[in-house]
């Protein structure tokens, strides 16, 4: 933290009563006393923060000085947008300032002083009969509130300045401070009458009056600036008393309870100010991030304290910061700075680091928090009322909905099981394969591996006091990675992943000592079987062979126990090995347990791995390269040894397949070095340097398809989840997908349109419908549509795409390429930390429209790649976002499209999308609308239309012949006969016509 007191920020040695930092953190305003009038000054913030800029004479310090007020200025506040500045003065006036073009001048002691910026008073607001002491802009700049010594509060209509919206009367003393609830439902005011009042913005009536903490207070402060926490849960008042000592009282929104306060100041608290952002950082002794708010408190004792809601004590306390009372505080929204001003005419700046304060929550996450807490969109708040409790429920069916908060739709079963289908080396359970060295691995906290003897697992007494409320594991759990090592969960570790860490570090084994023990214990055969994929350079003979770092990607990393944290560091450092390592490479210990044949259908489950890594080894391979590498997935490992055999015409590559709990299955040779390979539960695909591709049976090694020439080497090869399709991408951009069962080509095209400008291809996947999914190094992803004969954009750096992915993607999504290929690709290529269905505070913000545009594009992509499960999800998400954004026109268009018309059903209209009935989608959307009380009339209207539609269609089905002809003429005649039959009355026919007419009107 840095403390700065720029002496050039002054009002000619007159008091400064107010300070406020602009939203862009480039300037700040001060208000106070001038020579012969009230003074408002706008200062450049850069020279305050930078010594170099302060010493640079070309950098202006004062940007503009305004002496228009006739008396002392008590408060200055920037609008939320930053376009306007409001000032309140002892002359009973409020002035609204806006910047105009060009410089201006002001009379000073040395003549006319140049202003680098020109700010003009565009509105003068008259309404108070006494000094104006405090100001506050509402969220979204809908209103401006001011309070005065005339005991009143005035609400000004910002859109219609200088119109007065309401005058709030109720205080019996001077009103010295006001603050808006960040979600716009309440306005709080504090007065010399020893009370804090809460006013409802729906009707501007007083909702609550809090007096208990202020009964002992005297009117000893010039101002009482209270503040509301950015999450809306707490209101902190200024001058309060507790046991005879001054405090800053905490008033909880839930029940307006007053049982907590900030203590420590020796004299009355004059002002409090929350940082406008909700902050987050890693909780000490825990892996769980914590969210909190930050508050500054100023007092008449000339001291300043900074508090965090996550700490029991203040973060910092500065005594005797000024020579007089602290009168105002202001945080820099985009920077970790705090400005304070005093009656002695000086300003102080506290500059914090992000490590000290924390990282601000993004606007999307902040808005999502509002949605979770208050269950409503802030777009409804601008009219003053949006609470479900304030609305009249017109249908008894909807009464139950007010008990539940509206939540965005999610993909089903995204967290119940692990759907990371691209992971290599899963945990193999229910096996009896023993470990060759009796060691386990702890890879928490991104530290190098710590090895502990499994037979010496002692109880850690440090766990006892911290985790008593958490149910511990009843017995020791043992899981096993693909390379045969055991992972043992001690009996004393609870299942809850968010258990706080023990503070007793002495009971932990030293990582460096344990690593040394590990290196001494491992034999050569163990070293050879550590990595899931290992490349070994062998051009200079086996004696000089070095085992490189295992470049393990997310795809290739073994799936670990859910309580373990994945390490980003390699498992081991490079080690020199000898010839003996490869004599039985890789090493397996046989088990006497009989093993039954594998059922390929068991690997179709989305919760299981269905293939090995799609990319090649991280080593260059040439015709003369001698190297070894392997891949492990499912219960199998395939090992490739290039340059294994010397012949008269060149080197041969040897391929060996193993089953982990059995041993070697088969062995074969290939005449060209293998640069990439992949395998699923049925087949092995071998891709050579000469561009040839071979397909073998995984269990027997038999050839399934003849060798295919692809001109250049393959860089990516993949199977579909069920193993029916196989595809490759070559260096020159050729894309091929084959059907293994029929030995026929399904797709043959080129990637030249998307190659070369996005970096290397990082991942390649194939859906069950032969749709290729390609992900590049720069985060872009594409898919090919044979119908459109074009590449489809799945992910780019487009702002709309990025915003949509960050705010609309399911939270904690585990990839599942079988059921959710589109979302899985976007989750892989989009580096978002928290995906939330955020609600935008600004109704006119571009973000609201961007989300809707993104979701509509997602629906079309789901249709193009034939993904019905995702289609249903994105239709529900579209309805949710339209409902939250208040877009009735688009909601009606969506509902009309899904409802259809009963008079032409089956003739012209498409009644299904990807074999999903439109009416099924309509029912899910109506269910969404039912939860939004705001749309109760729309729900009832379309629910009635849908019920009438079903009645009319049911009668059509009863009268129509059982066996329908396929020709359109026959169907048309049947509908004519239906219309002519007396079973459908004239009233019902008119109802059908009215239904169509009603839909046309909507």
Features:
about 1000 residues, alpha+beta, Methylamine Dehydrogenase, Chain H, 5-stranded antiparallel sheet, 4-stranded antiparallel sheet, 58 strands, about 20% helix, elongated
Summarize the structure in words.
Required for replication-independent chromatin assembly and for the periodic repression of histone gene transcription during the cell cycle. One of its GO terms (biological process) is regulation of DNA-templated transcription. The protein is of the alpha+beta class and 1002 residues long. Among the domains are: 1-104 and 113-126, Methylamine Dehydrogenase, Chain H, CATH 2.130.10; 212-370, YVTN repeat-like/Quinoprotein amine dehydrogenase (Methylamine Dehydrogenase, Chain H); 796-833 and 846-901 and 910-951. Helix content is 18%, strand content 32%. The chain has 15 helices and 58 strands. A 5-stranded antiparallel β-sheet has the order 38-41-42-43-44, with no helix packed on it. The chain has a 4-stranded antiparallel β-sheet with strand order 1-32-31-30, with no helix packed on it. The chain has a 4-stranded antiparallel β-sheet with strand order 2-3-4-5. Helix 9 runs antiparallel to helix 10 (868-885). The chain is elongated and about 100 Å long. The relative contact order is 0.06.
Number of strands: 58
CATH architecture of the domain at 212-370: 7 Propeller
User: Which of globular, elongated, flat, extended, rod-shaped describes the shape?
Assistant: elongated
Strand order of the largest sheet: 38-41-42-43-44
For the report, how would you describe the main beta sheet? 5 strands, antiparallel
Share of helix among residues? 10-25%
Flag low-confidence runs: 107-111, 377-390, 415-476, 489-607, 832-844, 961-987
Distance between the termini: 60 Å
- CATH fold description of the domain at 212-370: Methylamine Dehydrogenase, Chain H
Instruction: Name the CATH homologous superfamily of the domain at 212-370.
Output: YVTN repeat-like/Quinoprotein amine dehydrogenase
Radius of gyration: 35 Å
Mean pLDDT: 75
CATH class of the domain at 212-370: Mainly Beta
Strand proportion, as a percent range, falls in: 25-35%
Class from helix and strand fractions: alpha+beta
């Amino acid at each position: 933290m840095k403390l700065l007191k720029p002496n050039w920020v002054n009002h000619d040695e007159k008091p400064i009563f107010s300070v406020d930092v602009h939203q862009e953190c480039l300037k700040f305003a001060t208000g106070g006393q001038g020579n012969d009038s009230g003074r408002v000054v706008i200062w450049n913030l850069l020279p305050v923060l930078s010594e170099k800029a302060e010493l640079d004479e070309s950098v202006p310090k004062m940007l503009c000085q305004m002496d228009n007020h006739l008396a002392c200025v008590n408060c200055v506040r920037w609008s939320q947008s930053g376009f306007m500045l409001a000032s309140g003065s002892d002359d009973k006036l409020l002035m609204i300032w806006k910047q105009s073009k060009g410089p201006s001048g002001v009379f000073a002691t040395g003549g006319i002083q140049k202003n680098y910026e020109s700010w003009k008073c565009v509105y003068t607001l008259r309404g108070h009969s006494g000094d104006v002491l405090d100001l506050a802009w509402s969220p979204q700049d809908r209103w401006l509130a001011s309070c005065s010594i005339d005991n009143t509060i005035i609400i000004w209509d910002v859109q219609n300045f200088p119109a007065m919206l309401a005058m709030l009367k109720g205080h019996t003393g001077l009103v010295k401070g006001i603050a808006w609830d960040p979600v716009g439902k309440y306005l709080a005011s504090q007065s010399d009458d020893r009370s804090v009042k809460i006013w409802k913005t729906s009707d501007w009536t007083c909702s609550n009056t809090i007096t208990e903490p202020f009964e002992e207070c005297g009117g000893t402060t010039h101002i009482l600036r209270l503040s509301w926490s950015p999450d809306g849960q707490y209101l902190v008042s200024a001058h309060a008393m507790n046991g005879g000592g001054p405090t800053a009282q905490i008033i909880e929104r839930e029940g307006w309870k007053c049982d907590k306060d900030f203590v420590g100041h020796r004299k009355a608290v004059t002002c409090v100010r929350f940082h406008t952002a909700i902050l987050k950082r890693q909780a000490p002794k825990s892996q769980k991030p914590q969210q909190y708010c930050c508050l500054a408190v100023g007092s008449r004792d000339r001291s300043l304290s900074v508090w965090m809601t996550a700490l029991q004590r203040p973060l910092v306390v500065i005594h005797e910061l000024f020579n007089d009372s602290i009168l105002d505080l202001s945080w820099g929204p985009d920077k970790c700075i705090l400005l304070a001003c005093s009656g002695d005419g000086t300003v102080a700046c506290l500059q914090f680091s992000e490590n000290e304060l924390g990282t601000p929550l993004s606007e999307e996450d902040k808005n999502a928090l509002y949605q979770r807490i208050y269950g409503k969109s802030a777009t409804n708040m601008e009219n003053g009322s949006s609470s479900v409790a304030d609305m009249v429920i017109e249908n008894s069916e909807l009464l139950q909905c007010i008990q539940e908060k509206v939540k965005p739709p999610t993909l089903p079963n995204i967290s119940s099981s692990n759907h990371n289908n691209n992971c290599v080396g899963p945990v193999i359970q229910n096996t009896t394969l023993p470990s060759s060295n009796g060691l386990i691995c702890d890879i928490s906290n991104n530290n190098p591996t710590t090895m502990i003897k499994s037979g010496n697992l002692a109880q850690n007494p440090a766990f006892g006091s911290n985790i008593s409320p958490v149910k511990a594991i009843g017995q020791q759990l043992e899981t096993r990675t693909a390379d045969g090592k055991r992972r043992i969960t001690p009996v004393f570790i609870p299942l809850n992943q968010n258990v706080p860490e023990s503070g007793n570090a002495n009971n932990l084994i030293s990582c460096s000592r344990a690593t040394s023990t590990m290196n001494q214990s491992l034999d050569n055969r163990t070293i050879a079987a550590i990595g899931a994929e290992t490349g070994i350079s062998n051009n200079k003979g086996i004696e000089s062979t070095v085992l490189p770092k295992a470049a393990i990607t997310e795809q290739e990393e073994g799936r670990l126990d859910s309580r373990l944290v994945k390490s980003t560091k390699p498992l081991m450092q490079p080690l020199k090995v000898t010839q003996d390592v490869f004599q039985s490479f890789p090493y397996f210990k046989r088990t006497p347990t009989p093993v039954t044949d594998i059922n390929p259908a068991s690997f179709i489950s989305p919760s299981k791995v269905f293939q090995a890594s799609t990319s090649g080894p991280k080593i260059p391979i040439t015709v003369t390269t001698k190297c070894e590498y392997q891949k492990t997935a499912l219960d199998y490992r395939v090992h490739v040894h290039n340059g294994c055999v010397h012949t008269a015409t060149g080197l041969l590559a040897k391929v060996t397949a193993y089953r982990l709990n059995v041993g070697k299955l088969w062995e074969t040779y290939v005449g060209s070095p293998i640069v990439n390979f992949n395998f699923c539960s049925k087949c092995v695909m071998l891709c050579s340097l000469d561009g040839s591709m071979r397909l073998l049976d995984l269990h027997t090694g038999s050839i399934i398809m003849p060798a295919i020439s692809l001109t250049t080497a393959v860089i990516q090869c993949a199977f579909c989840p069920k193993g029916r399709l196989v595809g490759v991408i070559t260096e020159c951009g050729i894309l091929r997908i084959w059907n293994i069962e029929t030995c026929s080509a399904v797709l043959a095209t080129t990637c030249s349109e998307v190659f070369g400008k996005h970096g290397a291809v990082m991942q390649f996947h194939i859906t069950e419908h032969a749709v290729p999914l390609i992900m590049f190094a720069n985060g872009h992803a594409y898919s090919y549509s044979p119908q459109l004969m074009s590449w489809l954009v799945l992910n780019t750096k487009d702002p709309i795409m990025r915003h949509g992915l960050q705010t609309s993607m399911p939270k904690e999504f585990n990839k599942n390429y079988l059921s959710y290929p589109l979302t899985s690709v976007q989750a892989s290529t989009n580096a978002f930390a928290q995906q939330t269905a955020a609600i935008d505070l600004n109704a006119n913000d571009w973000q609201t429209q961007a989300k809707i545009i993104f979701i509509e594009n997602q629906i079309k992509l789901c249709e193009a790649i034939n993904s019905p499960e995702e289609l249903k999800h994105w239709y529900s998400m579209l309805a949710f976002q339209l409902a939250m954004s208040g877009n009735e026109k688009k909601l009606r268009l969506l509902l009309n499209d899904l409802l259809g018309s009963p008079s032409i059903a089956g003739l012209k209209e498409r009644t299904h999308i990807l074999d999903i009935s439109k009416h099924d989608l309509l029912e899910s959307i109506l269910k969404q609308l039912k939860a939004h009380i705001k749309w109760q009339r729309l729900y009832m209207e379309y629910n009635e239309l849908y019920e009438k539609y079903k009645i009319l269609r049911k009668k059509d089905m009863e009268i129509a012949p059982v066996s329908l002809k396929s020709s359109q003429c026959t169907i048309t005649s049947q509908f004519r006969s239906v219309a002519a039959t007396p079973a459908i009355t004239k009233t019902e026919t008119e109802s059908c016509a009215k239904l169509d007419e009603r839909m046309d009107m909507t």
